[in-house]
Specification:
Strand 1, helix 1 and strand 2 form a beta-alpha-beta unit. The strands form 3 sheets. The protein has an 8-stranded mixed sheet with strand order 2-1-3-4-12-11-10-7. A two-stranded antiparallel sheet has the order 5-9. It has a two-stranded antiparallel sheet with strand order 6-8. The relative contact order is 0.17. The protein is 28% helix and 21% strand. It is globular and about 45 Å long. It is built from 6 helices and 12 strands. Helix 1 crosses helix 6 and helix 2 crosses helix 3. It has one domain: 3-Layer(aba) Sandwich (Rossmann fold). It is of the alpha/beta class.
């Protein structure tokens, strides 16, 4: 069976519920750091899919991160060859850059905490996003970002938020998600512990977000498990 490669930029940005969806269906994940040997494989013949995780760096900081340009090229080759790619936050931004779209600091400022999103009409019949239901009527999805991107050419917009209109897109059988459906309570708690001042820059607080972990995530986690499960099943 071909391998599914997880491009994980930092230990603090693990695949969370994505990994759970794969493991529940008997699929093994092969982890690699784009900046640390062993590098992601240039030969994709034995690759079934790519999962590209988040990180604090910007997709426009290729001069500061020499490993980023080869990673973007790898993502482009994967998508061009028809391999499914799932990108989360920075991963979605790298996908957008690979498809020729501009990635940049968002003028609306940071988007942090649980935020409602609005699904585009195309999302309701999408194999993955139809599992999200009416996100705008629930607690929203977890956000932790300040960068955004233009919608790549030939990509289909799937979701928007009040601050940033490009929250999720589909390109062929690949998906980019700006938000963090993969983040469970353990991951969110660690982010708040590691960077407690980041939420304040977005007009909220670590204390408020921490207080919302228990009442909010159950519904969000169910949506995430369904969406990521559908991605695993799409790979086959």
């Amino acid at each position: 069976m071909s391998s599914v490669y997880v491009l994980q930029h930092l230990p603090i940005e693990p695949p969370g519920l994505i990994a759970r969806a794969f493991h529940q269906r008997g699929r093994h994940l092969h982890y690699c750091r784009p900046d640390t040997p062993p590098y992601p494989p240039e030969n994709l013949d034995k690759c079934a899919a790519l999962v590209v995780m988040g990180g604090p760096m910007g997709a426009y900081e290729q001069d500061a991160h020499p490993w980023m340009a080869p990673e973007i090229a790898l993502i482009r080759r994967a998508m061009d060859s028809g391999l499914p790619v799932l990108g989360i936050c920075l991963g979605a931004q790298l996908m957008a850059a690979a498809l020729g779209a501009k990635v940049y600091k968002g003028q609306a400022g940071l988007e942090v905490g649980w935020c409602p999103i609005t699904l585009a009409p195309e999302a309701h019949n999408d194999p993955l996003f139809r599992h999200l239901g009416e996100c705008s009527n629930g607690p929203g999805v977890f956000q932790w970002h300040g960068d955004t991107f233009d919608l790549p050419p030939q990509a289909t917009l799937l979701a928007s938020s009040q601050k940033y209109p490009h929250q999720a897109f589909r390109y062929k059988n690949s998906y980019g998600l700006q938000f963090h459906l993969e983040a469970d309570e353990k991951i969110i708690t660690r982010w708040l512990r590691e960077d407690p001042h980041y939420p304040a820059q977005a007009g909220t607080s670590a204390e408020l977000i921490r207080s919302q972990i228990h009442p909010f995530p159950q519904q969000v986690h169910q949506m995430g498990e369904a969406l990521f499960g559908a991605f695993v099943e799409m790979i086959g």
